[in-house]
Design a protein that fits this description.
mainly alpha; 7 helices; elongated
């Protein structure tokens, strides 16, 4: 990468050999350090992997040992609701871990966590003892709401650092 591009603030992927080079250029221009770009990229990749793995594991927990309690997915879509919800979690989780179109995957995960936060908020407000988020493992909706919010913030930080919300192909 030439110094001319860094100094001019060029961040178009067309001027680079890979989308990663564009991210590094944006990071270098804004922050002036390759080390900070590496740290930020590491945090974003870690977030994608941890959140993706948690989504897949929670889907498996629901499929292998369904909750006996009330499930919002079951209320909305009948007995196949848990299967449908789990399939969405597996798809988004695997997509995050694969890194293909990672900016769009981050957006999909943020939308999913927005839904999780909303559902757990309603369940907590209604006094539900368990949300069924992890299948038969009893977890309170407030604790899962807090976990979902924390993971969503981690994804948002990753999106902010990489510009994924403005440029979905930049991650």
């Amino acid at each position: 990468m030439s110094d001319e591009r860094v100094q001019s603030g060029c961040c178009s992927a067309a001027h680079h050999s890979s989308p990663l080079a564009a991210v590094e250029t944006v990071g270098s221009v804004e922050h002036g350090s390759g080390a900070s770009v590496d740290l930020r990229r590491t945090v974003v990749v870690a977030a994608r992997w941890v959140v993706g793995l948690l989504l897949v594991l929670s889907a498996l927990a629901k499929l292998l040992s369904p909750s006996d309690g009330v499930s919002l997915a079951r209320m909305l879509w009948g007995l196949h609701g848990d299967l449908l919800w789990s399939a969405v979690e597996v798809v988004v989780g695997t997509w995050l871990m694969a890194g293909w179109q990672a900016g769009i995957a981050l957006r999909a995960a943020l939308a999913l966590f927005g839904a999780f936060i909303g559902v757990n908020g309603v369940l907590a407000w209604s006094g539900s003892a368990s949300c069924g988020c992890l299948g038969a493992v009893r977890t309170g909706p407030l604790s899962m709401l807090a976990m979902d919010a924390l993971l969503a913030v981690w994804l948002l930080v990753g999106c902010r650092w990489t510009g994924a919300l403005r440029h979905p192909d930049s991650v």
